[in-house]
Design goal:
By secondary structure, the protein is mostly beta strands. The chain has one domain: Trefoil (Acidic Fibroblast Growth Factor, subunit A) (Trefoil), CATH 2.80.10. 4% of the residues lie in helices and 38% in strands. It is built from one helix and twelve strands, in the order ββββββαββββββ. Strands 2, 3, 6, 7, 10 and 11 form a six-stranded antiparallel β-sheet that branches. β4 and β5 form a beta hairpin. InterPro entries: Ricin_B-like_lectins (IPR035992), Ricin_B_lectin (IPR000772).
Length: 137
């Protein structure tokens, strides 16, 4: 019988908020991914799949907008998208950061770190607090 999937967990930012998909767009490609006060909702439930995908409980993957991914753009767009296994949906945990397959880090826009609706983006890795992420125990 199939192995059970690992449980979905909250993904906590260095500011203490959770990685969140904008709820009204939860099932839409291109949905905004943001920092939000942790509330154990579906839009805040994630798991790291074996292929490196960060998968939301609603079935969407954490995705870097392809032109930003390939261009290594600081401030590049991160969104929720149907899972397709592409390199712009592959992540690894390194030094407490979530690092995309292009070597850039998942980053909360620093001025918004403690705010609901904070912009989440990719940025050159710099080990700052806005690039710290932790799957809740």
């Amino acid at each position: 019988e199939p192995e059970s999937l690992p449980p979905h967990k909250s993904l906590l930012s260095g500011g203490g908020n959770c990685l969140d998909i904008h709820a009204p767009d939860l099932r839409n490609n291109g949905a905004k991914v943001q920092g939000w006060e942790c509330n154990s909702s579906v839009q805040q439930s994630w798991r790291l799949a074996e292929n490196g995908a960060v998968v939301n409980q609603a079935g969407k993957c954490l995705d870097v907008h392809a032109p930003d991914f390939h261009g290594h753009i600081n401030g590049g767009k991160v969104q929720a998208w149907d899972c397709h296994g592409g390199s712009n949906q592959r992540w690894r945990i390194e030094n407490g950061s979530l690092v995309a397959d292009n070597g850039m880090c998942l980053d909360v826009h620093a001025p918004d770190l403690y705010k609901n609706g904070a912009k989440v983006q990719i940025w050159e890795c710099n080990r700052s607090v806005q690039q710290k992420w932790l799957f809740s125990p």
